[in-house]
C-alpha cells in the first residue's frame, strides 16, 4: 500500500470518525468541540488523521476543557520527508500519541493568558516554553498564527510547526 493510499484511507476514516453530531449551545447556535472545530476549519486534515491514528479523538471530544496548539497541514508538511507516514504506522502509535499530547494543555487558556506564561504543562507530561517577542507569541519555537478559536470544550491556537517533546 502506498503512502498516498494509506494516508487517504486514514484521512477518510478520521473524517468519518470526527463527523459526530454537534451539541446545541444555550444561545441556540451550534457549539462544536475541539475536534469538530478543527475539522470544520479545513486546514487540519493531517492533524485529524493523526488524532484518529493515535486514538485521541474521544479524548479531545471529551469534557475538557483543553487548550490545543494545533499545527496546520502546512506545519506537518515542514517535517522531514517520510516522518508523517512513519508516525501514522500502528507500531508508532505511542510516539504519535506523545507528540500530539505535547500540543495539548489542560484548561482553557485564552491568548490574553498565554502571553503571561513562560511555560505550560502539557497532557504529555512535559512543559512547553512560551515566549513573547515583539508582540508575537511562540510555543516551543512554533509561531502562533491565530488565537482564541473557541470550542465547546476549550480553545485552539494555531501554530506554524509541529512541536516535538524532548
Can you walk through the features of this model?
The chain is α+β, with helices and mostly antiparallel strands and 166 residues long. It has one domain (3-159): Roll (FAS1 domain), CATH 2.30.180.10. It has eight helices and nine strands. It has helices spanning 3-18, 34-41, 45-54, 57-60, 73-77, 83-87, 93-101, 111-114; strands at 23-24, 30-31, 66-71, 104-106, 119-121, 127-133, 136-139, 142-151, 154-159. The strands form two sheets. It has a seven-stranded mixed beta sheet. A hairpin with a 2-residue loop joins strand 7 (136-139) and strand 8. Helix 1 (3-18) crosses helix 3 (45-54) and helix 3 (45-54) packs across helix 7 (93-101). The longest helix has 16 residues, at 3-18. It starts with a helix and ends in a 7-residue tail after the last strand. Residues 1-28 have low confidence and may be disordered.
Amino acid at each position: 500500500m502506498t503512502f498516498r493510499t494509506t494516508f487517504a484511507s486514514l484521512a477518510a476514516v478520521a473524517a468519518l470518525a470526527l463527523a459526530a453530531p454537534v451539541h446545541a449551545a444555550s444561545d441556540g447556535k451550534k457549539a462544536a468541540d475541539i475536534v469538530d472545530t478543527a475539522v470544520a476549519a479545513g486546514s487540519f486534515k493531517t492533524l485529524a488523521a493523526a488524532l484518529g491514528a493515535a486514538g485521541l479523538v474521544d479524548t479531545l471530544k471529551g469534557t475538557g476543557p483543553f487548550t490545543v496548539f494545533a499545527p496546520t497541514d502546512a506545519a506537518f508538511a515542514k517535517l522531514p520527508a517520510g516522518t508523517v507516514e512513519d508516525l501514522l504506522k500502528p507500531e508508532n502509535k505511542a510516539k504519535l500519541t506523545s507528540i500530539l499530547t505535547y500540543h495539548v494543555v489542560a484548561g482553557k487558556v485564552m491568548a490574553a493568558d498565554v502571553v503571561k506564561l513562560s511555560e505550560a504543562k502539557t497532557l504529555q507530561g512535559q512543559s512547553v516554553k512560551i515566549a513573547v517577542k515583539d508582540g508575537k507569541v511562540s510555543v516551543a519555537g512554533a509561531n502562533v498564527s491565530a488565537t482564541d478559536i473557541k470550542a465547546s470544550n476549550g480553545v485552539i491556537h494555531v501554530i506554524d510547526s509541529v512541536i516535538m517533546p524532548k
